[in-house]
Each structure stands twice: as C-alpha cells, then as structure tokens.
Amino acid sequence: MSDRYVVGVDYGTLSGRALVVRVSDGAEVGTAVHEYRHGVMDGVLAASGAPLPPDWALQDPDDYRDVLRNAVPAALAAAGVDPADVIGIGTDFTACTVLPALADGTPLCELPELRHRPHAWVKLWKHHAAQPHADRINALAHERGEPWIGRYGGKISAEWQYAKGLQLLEEDPEVYDRAERWIEAADWIIWQLCGVETRNVCTAGYKGIFQDGAYPSKDYLAALNPGFAGFTAKLDGPLLPLGGRAGSLTAEAAAWTGLPEGIAVAVGNVDAHVTAAAAQALDPGRLVAIMGTSTCHVVNGTVPAEVSGMCGVVDGGISAGAWGYEAGQSGVGDIFGWFVDHAAPAGFDSHERLSELAAAQPVGAHGLIALDWWNGNRSLLVNHDLSGLIVGLTLATRPADIYRALLESTAYGTRMIIEAFAAAGVPVTELVVAGGLTTNRLLMQIYADVTGRPLSIIGSAQGPALGSAIHAAVAAGAYADVHEASEAMGRVERGVYQPDPDRARAYDALYAEYELLHDHFGRGANDVMTRLRAIRNAAHHHSADKPTVTLGVAA
Q1: What pTM was computed for the model?
Q2: TM spans, by residue (predicted)?
C-alpha cells in the first residue's frame, strides 16, 4: 500500500476541499479548495433575483459538481502522484442538506421550468424556515406516542428531512409532486460519482428517522398532512453501511476528476461523523467536536439511551458495532465572525486582536453571560426560533469583553450537551476537537476549563476530508474495516489542553448563571425570543407586500 492513494472530498457550507492521502499511513500529500460560485443563497434566488423569505438558505447542486471538476484535479496536481495509483474516493457533506430530484437523480432546480421556484433548490443545513413544521411533527409524535421520538431527544429538528419535506409539500405542492426523490446531498454526490443511487445509514438514521429497520408509519405522516403519507417513498433508496462500496467511478466522473474509471466510490457520509475516524476517536467516551461555523458533537456508546435534546442515536451511525450519538450547536464560528464583521469597532475588528485582549482577562472580569443562540439552538432545546442574548452590558463594557463572553457562551453550550449525555448514561471522558477553530488557543483553553475535561486536538487540519479518505480506503479493500483504517491513517494529539482547577471553579459559577438563563428563555418561562421572531417575520412579509416607495429630496 506504500504507493497507493485515496481521495477524500469534504463539502462544507461555502466550499469543497479535496485531499489526496497515502493509504499506508494517512500522509496528506496534496490538497485543493474550490469555493462555491453561488455560495449560500439566503437573500435572493440567484436564478431569478427574487427575494427569499427570512430563515431560508439554498444552494446550487452544480457548485458541488464543480468541486469534483476543479478541486480534485488540483489536489492531484499538488500531490504529484500518478492518478493510476489512486484506488478510491470518498466524500462527506454538511447535513441535513437535502434536495428534490427526479428518479434519475436530476435536481429539480436544473429543470428550466422550475429554476425560478425556490423550493426546487437544495435546502442547506441552516435553512431554518421549517420550524413551524418541525413543531407540528414533534407535537403529533408525542401525542401519538411514536416510538422513535425518544431516539431524537424528544424533538425532530427543523433542519432535517421531514420538516423541510413537509414545508415543501405545503408551500409548493407542485414541486413536491415532481420530486421523485428527496435525497441528502451526501448521497446525491455519490450518485453523481458512480451512477448508482444509494443511501447511507448515517443520514438515514440521524436525519431521516430510520430506526429499527423502518421509517415513520404512513398513518403518522398522513395525520400530519394527507398528502405526506407517501413521503418515505422518496427516501427509500438502497441503504448501505459506512465504509461500504457504493459503486465504481463512472467514465463521466473520471473525466471530471482525472481519476481512473472504475475505482471504488465509498458510501456517503456526514462531515462530523466521518471525522471521528480521522481523529482516532471511535472508542466510547471520546466526544469529537467539529468546530467551524457551527459545531457538531459525536460520540460512540455501547448501548442505546435516550438523551434529552440530542440530535439522535443510531446503530452504526458513526462506526459499525457501536451506537453513535450526535448533538450540535447551530452557531459557533458564525457568532464570532458576526461580532468581528458587524459589531467590533475599527482597531478591534480582527479575531487575533480580540483574542489577545480577551486572553489577558481573569475569568469573570467582564461581568457578562451570553446565550449562544445567534443561529437558534440545535441541542438541547431544538428550537431555531431562539436568538442570542448578552446580559451584564454596562458603559464600561469593551469589545474584548463581549468577544470573550461569546467564546465562553459556546463552551457553556457544549458543557450542556456533555452533561446531558452523562446524565443519560453515555459518559464523556475526553473532548477531541477538529475544525478550523482549533487554531484559537484561547478558545481551546476555555473549552477545557469550562468542561473540566482534557482536550485533544486532531492531528490534521483537514479532519473531514481525511476521514472520507479513510472510508475510501476501506471501500477499496485496503483495510478490513474503519477501525483498522483509523488506527493506520488517523492522527490525534492527546491532552493538548488541560483544565486549570482555579479557572474551572470560576467557570462553574458562571455556568450556573448560564443554565438559569438557558432554561428561563429556552424552556417556556419567557418566550420573548419567539415573539420577537414572529414580529420580525411579519414586518418582513408586510414590507414585501407593499409597493416600493422612492423618497425624494425637496428642492
């Protein structure tokens, strides 16, 4: 295997990255990034210029093909390896990112007659406009005592397949009827590579409510909306395990990528879940936090348990032979970026400067507590109508104070998740961090101090892409299973950050205040955030319905 290679492709929110990896030891020999031409469409639909409603987030699936056409050949060139030595390709995707398609995989947005219809396009993971539909899904599941609802912490997210699918049906039934397939982008891109439709057990379990061999019943779906009864027929493709071989690279995809036709194409996967293999964190108790614009938390357990507010527990959802648990925070890096880009004054508008100033502060010196809900709450409250909050602002408050409070707020959110797991009998002994935010040393130390756990750092800057490459090596037959491949190709630096006892005690007091605010504003004592969201949305709709008025200047 010393001269054999695999390619991992990581599809993020704004770009896709290709990574060429040596099979024998996981050495990363070449990489390239391709930015999506259309990025995230959250203001207007690119095809028509028409404005989008609040909380929408769409993408163009051809941007995903462009990653194959551009990033993969560029990574091969950077690696300087002979393409003939590449034996497999694997991919991962943000999730739940889902699109409607024809039975042959053609996205509906690529049909000329549907390009102006927003519901025909890819709904990105952070499309949160289906929250009312998620609320109905959850209420009915509890009313009927559906057996699967506990596997998702008691709530199905607005980000997932069913809420987005129900929104599609009720807001554009014609597009819903045209959609013969409702498919995760994680599976759709594999279809593009090997010409065969497959579904992976990870997204089917976490985002598609596939539990104990079945989807929710037709009776339940019909009770939501009679037209929704047959929804799962749009989901029900061949279901394959992680690390399995979905098929072989087609001639067309070989021409896009510059890779040999016929090499192994691994089953699709999710960016967070695939990273556990890259971080050598498949053993129970090692929670992987993939920290970027948002954070996804994944950990393996030995038994199934119901954890309040988690994203789900799935048999084999991270790796075969274990129960994979998922939780997450909808905004992390995005929150820090918002402050730097839109709120920090000149001279303070950089992460480096703000981190330097914030690091000089003792714990609690700023007198602030923030709730990390700038993009809603994924876990534990599963409510994307919630919003951010900062308590304690005074005329003495300075930019670095707010910045540090925002960093700390996301660490408190992660501690809430860890404690929920532990309370349900899923222990977390170590925090393993991957993603772009690992470079912020202040943030990493805050997480160790707030959670009271050692913090390890993945030994790769491209964790998801490396994880996808590891799965490609298994699909190509180079290793017997993902565990074996992880040990050979993954890497991690253990215990890089250790909790400081004095700071940890100080954070315990602040965390107690965070918990009080979390429950007051998030568990129904005060619904001001959702009321403000409703007022905002009504104002937007009212403004959109009124004719444009041009204000002139009197002579």
Answers
A1: 0.91
A2: none
